[in-house]
Amino acid sequence: MALLAAVVVLTTLVSSLAGCATPMPQVVEKIVTQVVKETVIVKGTPQVVEKKVTKVVEVEKVVTATPTPVPGPTGEIVEL
Question: Which partner from 14, 43, 73, 79 sits 20 to 30 angstroms from 36, CA to CA?
């Protein structure tokens, strides 16, 4: 019986410590395409040139969970 209690306590401690682990940052890649209009002077006359520019943008974000509000004893929502 003592062995079972020790296993239950150990399992509870390990699971609670695993829940407190620091979140790993996630790298988010996004491809951005934009049309750029540019005025260029060719042989003395201005001309509008359109270029399509594509760029891969990498952003590193740390995602953290937001705790859900818990209703208090009077029924109102209390933020923790």
Answer: 43
Contacts of 4 (CB under 8 A, 6+ apart): none
Three-point CA angle 18, 24, 26, nearest 5°? 145
DSSP state of 80: -
Q: What is the pLDDT of residues 5-18, one digit of tens each?
A: 888 888 888 877 76
Mapping DSSP to helix (H, G, I), strand (E, B) and coil, where does residue 35 land?
A: strand
Q: Which residues contact 49 (CB under 8 A, 6 or more apart)?
A: 37, 38, 39, 40
Q: Is 80 exposed, middle or buried (0-12, 13-18, 19+ CB in 10 A)?
A: exposed
Question: Which pTM was predicted?
Answer: 0.31
